[in-house]
Structures are given as C-alpha cells and as structure tokens.
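[09:14] KT: can someone run the structure on this one? pasting the chain below
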Amino acid sequence: MAPLVFVALAFACAASRLGYVTPWAVSALALAAAGGTRPVSSNALSWLSLAVLGYALLVASHALFIGTAYTPAGLYLPLLLALGFIVARRFDDRGLRTAAITAIGLGALLGTWGLVQIGPTGMARAQAIFETPATYAAVLNLLLVPVLALGIAARRRAAMLAVGGLLAAGLFAADSRGGLIALAAGMGAATIFSIRANRFRWRNLGLALAMLATGWAVATALRAWPSPELPVPTGEARAESSLSRLELYSLSWNAWRERPLAGTGYLTFRHTLEQGRAQVPSYGEANETWFVHNDYMQTLQELGPLGLVALLALAWLPALVAYRRIPALRADQQPAAIAAASALTAMACHALVDFPFYIPVCLLLYGALLGLLDRQLDARRVALVPGWKSQPWYRAARTGAVLVAALILLRPVVAEAAAEWGLRKSVAGDGHGAAFWLGAARRIEPADWRYHWYAGQFWDAQAMGSSRREAANLAADAFTAGFDANPLEVRNLLGMISVHRRHRALLDSPADRGTLQAWLARAEVLAPFNREVRGERALLEIAK
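[09:31] RB: done, structure tokens below
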C-alpha cells in the first residue's frame, strides 16, 4: 500500500508543476488502487463528506456544462480531493500510519531539496520541483502543521522532532509570506484545539517553537552560502508584490460583477488578466498568472456565489466541526483529530493570500486530512435509506455512474496521448501520422481548444510548405473550431486571422477585409497588450 501512496503523491507533485492530464490520472489511479481493497467504514454520509461531494460535483459540472471554457483540470482536481477523502476514511489505523509515514517521508525529501536549492545551488527562495515557492510552502505546511500539532497535543518523539525541524527548515527556505501566515494559523488552531481537549502544555508549545527556531536557523545559515543566484527580496519588493495582489483582487471582483450568477468558468482568470492588464500595471505586458492569490475571490469570479459557498464549507466546516466534537472524543482519537484539523485550518487561511485549492497535491493532501478527521470525529451520520447500499437499484446506479465517470475521465488522457504522439510524428516529418493523431485528439476531446490549435499549426505549416488548398482549409477549420471551443483564448483567433490573411488564394471561403477587422478587434479585446495581436494589426494595416 505504501508504494501506491508514494506514487500517488509523487505524481500529484509532478502534476502541480506540469499542465498535463496524465500525471493527474496516474495519481488518481494509484490513490484509488491504494484504497480499493479496504472495507467501507460507513454506509452513511457526514457533513464533511457532503462538503467534499458538493464542491467536487460543482466544479466538475461547471467545467463540463456551465463555464465558458472547458479544462480537464475541472475534472481531475476535484477528483483528487474526493479520492484523498474517500481513501483516508477507508483506511484502518495501521493503513493511516503507513500513509502518514509515506507522506512525511516525501515531505522530508522535498524539504531537503529546498535546503540544497538555497545552499549549494544558490537560489534565493526554495521551491523544490514546484513552480513557485508559495506552492512549495503550502505542501510543506500540510505535513509540518500536523507534526507540530501532535507535539503540542503531548506526543513527543525524537524522530518526529527531527522530521519537523527539517520540514520547518524547508518552509523557511521558501520564504513565502503566505506559507508563514498559514503556519501561524495552524499553530494557533493546534493550540486552541489542544486547550479544548485539555491536552495543552506550555512545555510542549515551547518545544514546537524550538523546532521552528531550529528550522529557521538552518535555513538562514544555508542562505548565507556564497554567491547566491538572486538576492533575497527586499522590503520594497515585498510591498510592491502586496500592491500587485490588490490589483489582481480588484480585477477579479470586476470580472465577477459582469457574470454574477454563473461566473466566468473554472480556471479562467488567466484570460481575465489578459483582457484587463490595464488594471494590473504591476504585471506589465508579459507577466502571467493563473491565480488571483485569493482562492475565495477566484472561486467567486469563476464559479459564482454557489461555488464560493461550496468552497467556504469545504475550507471552514472542518474547523467548526472539530471545535465542537474534539472534547467528546476518546483520548486516543484526539491527537490525530487535532493534527488534521490544524492542518486544514492552515490551508484555509493560506487560501486568503495564495492558491492552494488549485494545486493538485494540496487538494489530495487536504482531502486525505479531511477524511482522517472525519474518521476520527466519527460524526453523526445520516443514512438516507436504511441499508441503501445493499439495494439492487443502488448497485445498478453505482455501476452506471462508474462507467460514465470512467469514460469522461479517460477521454482527456487518451486525447492528450494522441496529440503528443501526433506532435512527435510532426517533428519526425511523418505528415500522414501527424495528421491522423492530431485529428484523433480533436475528435476525442473537441471541447479542449488546445488540440484544435495544435492541428491548426500543423496544417498551416503544411500549407506554407506545399501551397495545398486542402491544408489551408483544414488549418482555417481547426483554428475556427478551437475558437468556438474557447472564445476566451486568443491564440486560435490569431490563427484564424493569420491563415485568412496569408492563404487567401488557397481558401475556399476567404474572409473579407471587414471580417478580418472584426476578428482583430475581438482579439484586441481579449489580449490588448499581446505582441502577436499588435503584429497582426500592423500587418493588416500594411496590406491595405
């Protein structure tokens, strides 16, 4: 079981850096396999399970049916959250210990990696394999805070202190303000929950603080390594970063006001930034981000008020339920419940200034901690129909739901594999193979704009090299389909403009000048500071 948990976490970490579907799918498959042989702990639902189910279904349905732009992340990110919850709730005590040791072991590797980055390699801020130090800090907090909480709740072991010190050193090496805010929130929550359980001891808190101080000292010493790659951010740079986030908040708020009920669609803030760069001068004309750096604000913009309510329930209901239930737990249940609830509270606070609820490995760990908490609390559950899982209708419905879900989840993986193989064939000069596999990707996943864009680029290159009418028309059709799939993405629209401008003589129905002007005006609305958009404007003016 431990190897499967490690594979699930490792691929979730990779998926947090790479924008590919396959690592998400491998992580989900390994996680499902790890929990698939475990007996079901309960036939009923808890409030926490309803929060997970509600958020996951809302995000997935929004991505499939409501949002203005489809993304497979809208399927796989909530899947990792739900699987983490289900698998952790199914594990017995031995399985939970094994999974926890595996996760903390991976955290120790990440912590060591971060220390090497700020030491011998000379990086100013550690981030391990992740794209940003904030993501790195969010992952470490989900492992460090439980260790600290267990220490505060009267479990002191030398190995735990050593691992906690290493994780703390990695967190301080990241130098993430959001990570430090989350750490403080987690420590505060652990203290409050320990007091509620009558387990708080000042000596234990002092030991936890000493662990953190040791981690800080190690990170500070390594940061003094000669010849750093980049200087540590100054106070002025941090202030500018804070002001830029206020600009992002304002932009996201204005975007929500334009679609106050349904929202703009899951993970569409990148398009919002492209359209509204004038409102975010600190990001200039080229800096890019997918995130508002406030998950609650971003969820309101992308999923509407209902999505915000679902996220608030997912983020804050665990702390409220734990605060009420922890005093009534058995003494052997309290430490694990305190550890899980403290880490969940830390991530809920981190989401106020960063984006942990959009990071695959954070969602997986959050779901697992939530499942652990639900199992320890043994909260009052409500069976909607007594013995419902033994009913024939339930078995038939479950089989049908699993088959439908498998088909929906398999499509992005197969389409990505087909597109990747087609791109490889194109590089190798196999035009027939590239055309087949790129076309297959478009047919399998027509809602994903990327595959139309890949095919459009391929056929555009074929038209340029051979002046074939068929290639030019196929390029125009692919770019048009891509823009229809995602009317917020400017790249397919630019492809349409370029093909109709350069291959007019080859197209069956070339766009007239008025249509090209209208398309270009639309592109300027979508990305007013985009260099390619400006280039098309200049070329169109020259062609008068």
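[09:33] KT: thanks! The mean pLDDT is 90.
[09:34] RB: yep, looked fine to me
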